[in-house]
């Protein structure tokens, strides 16, 4: 009985596999980006400096310094961040504040 079922299913599947794919047209090229979007001005500029034994990495966007990473030779790197945008760097050792949404979808 099982062999007969497999044979019937295989016979039904062969015509499906033998069909020719429809004539597909190629996908057109995407349009160019709007003007002013390709200049890369929003990408951060990273500068790595050596100050004494520390390695200092400066991050700038549009020429404005917004974050500094200081890596001492022995120890954990720390960050100085301009949180208010006024040029005053504040040490930021806190973990990123990531709030994961935890909603009950269904309960029994």
Low-confidence stretches are: none
pLDDT averaged over residues: 81
**Largest sheet, spatial ordering of strands:** 1-2-3-4-5
Instruction: Give the helix/strand class.
Output: alpha+beta
Main β-sheet description: 5 strands, antiparallel
Description:
The protein has a 5-stranded antiparallel β-sheet, with no helix packed on it. It is built from 1 helix and 5 strands, in the order αβββββ. By secondary structure, it is of the alpha+beta class. It is elongated and about 80 Å long. It has a domain at 45-92: Protein of unknown function DUF2782 (S-adenosyl-L-methionine-dependent methyltransferases), CATH 2.20.130. Helices cover 16% and strands 28% of the residues. Residues 19-43 are annotated as: Disordered. Residues 23-36 have a biased composition (Pro residues).
What is the strand and helix layout of this fold?
Blueprint: H1 2-18, E1 45-51, E2 54-61, E3 64-71, E4 78-81, E5 90-92
Antiparallel strand pairs: 1-2, 2-3, 3-4, 4-5
Region (Disordered): 19-43
InterPro entries: DUF2782 (IPR021357)
Biased composition (Pro residues): 23-36
């Amino acid at each position: 009985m099982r062999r007969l079922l497999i044979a019937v299913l295989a016979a039904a599947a062969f015509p499906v596999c033998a069909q020719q794919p429809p004539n597909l047209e190629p996908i057109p090229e995407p349009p160019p980006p709007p003007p002013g979007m390709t200049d890369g001005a929003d990408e951060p500029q990273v500068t790595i400096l050596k100050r004494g034994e520390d390695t200092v990495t400066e991050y700038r966007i549009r020429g404005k310094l917004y974050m500094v990473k200081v890596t001492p030779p022995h120890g954990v790197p720390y960050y100085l961040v301009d949180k208010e945008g006024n040029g005053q760097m504040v040490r930021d050792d806190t973990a990123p504040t990531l709030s994961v949404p935890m909603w009950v979808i269904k309960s029994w």
